[in-house]
Write a structure and sequence with these properties.
Blueprint: H1 7-10, H2 22-25, H3 33-45, H4 52-55, H5 58-63, H6 69-75, H7 83-92, H8 99-102, H9 113-118, E1 147-148, E2 154-158, H10 184-196, E3 203-207, H11 216-227, E4 234-238, H12 241-244, H13 251-258, E5 263-267, H14 277-288, E6 293-299, H15 307-319, E7 323-329, H16 343-356, E8 364-369, E9 374-377, H17 383-391, H18 398-402
Parallel strand pairs: 2-3, 3-4, 4-5, 5-6, 6-7, 7-8
Antiparallel strand pairs: 1-2, 8-9
Bound molecules: iron/sulfur cluster.
Iron/sulfur cluster binds near residues 166, 167, 172 and 208.
């Protein structure tokens, strides 16, 4: 499958005009799967004695994550990175990128959406005093170490602070410099005890960091601990692995996860460039294990804040049967201000997509608000939708129909 082109995923549905890959819209050479594979091979060559078998091994990818600026500059020699100017940024917000995710960067595109999500940027240090490190006030809603309870019926278990790739727009980047506390099993047991003491909690979501950085055995321990709590009906995993390290989705992982159904899986693709054959295969393996896969994107300036980029992303996800679930408005988080977009522009983009994308491909555009306010659909603020509803008022007037 590795030689197939991304157009396979982005091609037209019957009766539709073909989707234009974003690269061709902005006038740079198309970046197809074959070239990505070649790029991957070029990066692999720089790891002495590593083989393609290593490349497909998630442990090798984790072990060889790019963690330093000199290494990054060597691997991306064509991009003119200036390590000296980025040192302060990575001291504040550490760097980690899997070789796989690095290979998705188009070497000739200065505005590459993958690069923008994972390469450090001096802009991360701007507006440090104007934004909070914890815009959702999560730290105030932790009744047990690592357990976030903002709603009555759900609990979020922050099981680690580590991720395969540090996304520069992350709303938990405040945690990157702190190692996971010792006593893994004790912590999980403490969270499970708290959940058991609150009978109204029916769903537990594993998050972090990325829960899939753990091996299958540890993951199984976490899932068993929460499954053992009688009233917990639903388990959910939030993980970016299908986008940044799809090799983590192995047969043995899927076999183990299958035993914990009903289990839902939410991932985060933010650009069609991340929907590679490897990513598609990872999502398919989860689906074949009976685990529905949904996607939560973030609307990010310079990554996906155009109609073409969002359509490519949403339709690409639909083609690999991953349901676009949420499109989050980027939160006012310290270190990610340069990713923010105007909410009015976000609403206008979704208005345009409403008539040009199938409903199955359209996520809800929401703002996650601080504390217990929760996720608010931003459609409610759409003037254009209100005008359409006003125009068709008769359609809803029950008394008129009953006369
Ligand atoms: S994988 Fe999630 S938690 Fe980790 S850096 Fe990316 S957005 Fe943040």
């Amino acid at each position: 499958m590795s030689g197939r082109k991304i157009h396979f995923f982005l091609g037209a549905l019957p009766g539709q005009s073909p989707l234009q890959p974003v690269e061709s819209v902005i006038g740079i050479p198309p970046w197809d799967e074959e070239k990505k594979t070649m790029r991957g091979q070029a990066i692999l060559k720089q790891y002495r004695q590593a083989t393609t078998r290593d490349w497909r091994d998630w442990r090798w990818q984790m072990h060889n994550r790019v963690r330093s600026l000199p290494k990054l500059a060597t691997l991306l020699s064509g991009r003119n990175l200036q390590p000296e100017s980025l040192q302060a940024t990575v001291s504040a917000y550490p760097l980690a990128i899997t070789p796989y995710y690095l290979s998705l960067i188009h070497p000739e595109n200065p505005a590459d959406p993958v690069a923008r999500q994972c390469l450090p940027d001096e802009k991360e240090l701007l507006f440090a005093d104007s934004f909070s490190g914890d815009p959702l006030q999560e730290d105030a809603f932790m009744p047990a170490d690592g357990l976030l309870c903002r709603y009555d019926d759900r609990a979020l278990a922050l099981v680690t602070r580590t991720c395969a790739t540090t996304c520069r727009h992350c709303n938990r980047k405040r945690q990157w410099k702190t190692a996971d506390p010792a006593g893994f099993k004790k912590r999980i047991a403490g969270m499970a005890r708290y959940v058991a003491s609150r009978p109204q909690i029916r769903e537990v979501i594993l998050s972090g960091g990325d829960p899939l950085i753990f091996d299958d055995e540890r993951l199984e321990f976490i899932l068993s601990s929460f499954r053992a709590v009688g009233q917990v009906e639903i388990l959910r995993i939030g993980s970016r692995m299908p986008a940044v390290l799809p090799m983590r989705i192995t047969r043995s992982l899927c076999k183990m996860l299958k035993r914990f159904r009903p289990l839902w899986f939410n991932t985060q693709f933010n650009t069609a460039a991340e929907i590679t054959p490897e990513a598609a295969r990872a999502c398919l393996m989860l689906q074949e294990a009976g685990i529905p896969v949904s996607n939560q994107s973030v609307l990010l300036a310079g990554v996906n804040d155009s109609e073409a980029a969002l359509r490519d992303l949403f339709c690409g996800l639909q083609k690999i049967t991953v349901r676009p679930y949420y499109l989050f408005h980027c939160e006012p988080v310290r270190g990610a201000a340069h990713f923010r977009t105007d909410v009015k522009e976000g609403i206008a983009l979704m208005e345009r997509l409403r008539t040009s994308c199938s409903g199955l491909a359209l996520p809800q555009y929401v703002a996650d608000l601080p504390g217990t306010a929760g996720k608010v659909p931003l459609w409610a603020a759409s003037g254009a939708l209100k005008r359409i509803l006003d125009k068709h008022q008769d359609f809803f007037d029950i008394s008129q129909q009953l006369d």
